[in-house]
Amino acid sequence: MTPSSSRPPIRFRGRSFMALVLAPVLPVADWLDELDALARRSPAFFVGRPVILDVAGLGLDRDGLVGLVADLAARDVAVMGIEGAAPGQLGAGLPPPPAGGRPVEEVAIPDPAVDAPVVPPAPAPFRSLIVDAPVRSGQTILHLEGDITVMGSVASGAEVIAGGSLHVYGALRGRAIAGAAGNPEARITCRRFEPELIAIDGLYRTADDLGPVQRGLPAQVRLEGDAIKVAGLD
Fold first, then answer.
1. Of all helices (H) and strands (E), which one includes residue 6?
2. How many domains are there within the chain?
3. 26 lies in which domain range?
4. 115 and 134, same structural domain?
5. Cα–Cα distance between 218 and 234 in angstroms, integer?
6. In the Cβ-directed half-sphere of 157, how many Cα atoms lie within 13 Å?
7. Residues 186, 106: Cα–Cα separation, whole Å
8. Domain holding 42: CATH number?
């Protein structure tokens, strides 16, 4: 038994979640008072809701940002990411900047006279993304809503992450992640198989784990149970 086959599989997954975006306005103290008023009208409004904090235009320094996040935490508002912060403001002790989000309709504020739950908008249907250019080293292509088709190659040091399947019409030399939204049926196909890392539904293998199988040849990758299988393309 080789060392790579004796290691237990490690899974990681990407998933899309609905998050509220809170955009405070100046003066922040008055805005927090309005937030408290909302909490009194609808105490459960923020329960179980992840929040993205948009601080663009506030001009807060790091101490002010830390204080605002603490004020929200004291109100049981779970901030999972911060947008609009100046470079270098985030880091230890603060949530990271989010990536890959897209705007949706505004969430209605509860009417104090009607105690009805707020229903978030339905998720967008799955759709494919076509990348007409090669993916260069250092680039990341993220599309959790469906398949990704790359008409060129994926360079070493590049990363392509698809919620569905991933199709590369050139050489695959970077990191290819399919089924990142929790799809074990996803596949990876390419015309020249030279990846640094491949993953499907959170199960991954590095180039060292894969060995020479299909190296430099057309290949398809799929899951069979908890094993990644690489085969030729007919």
1. helix 3-6
2. 2
3. 17-122
4. no
5. 8
6. 4
7. 33
8. 3.30.70
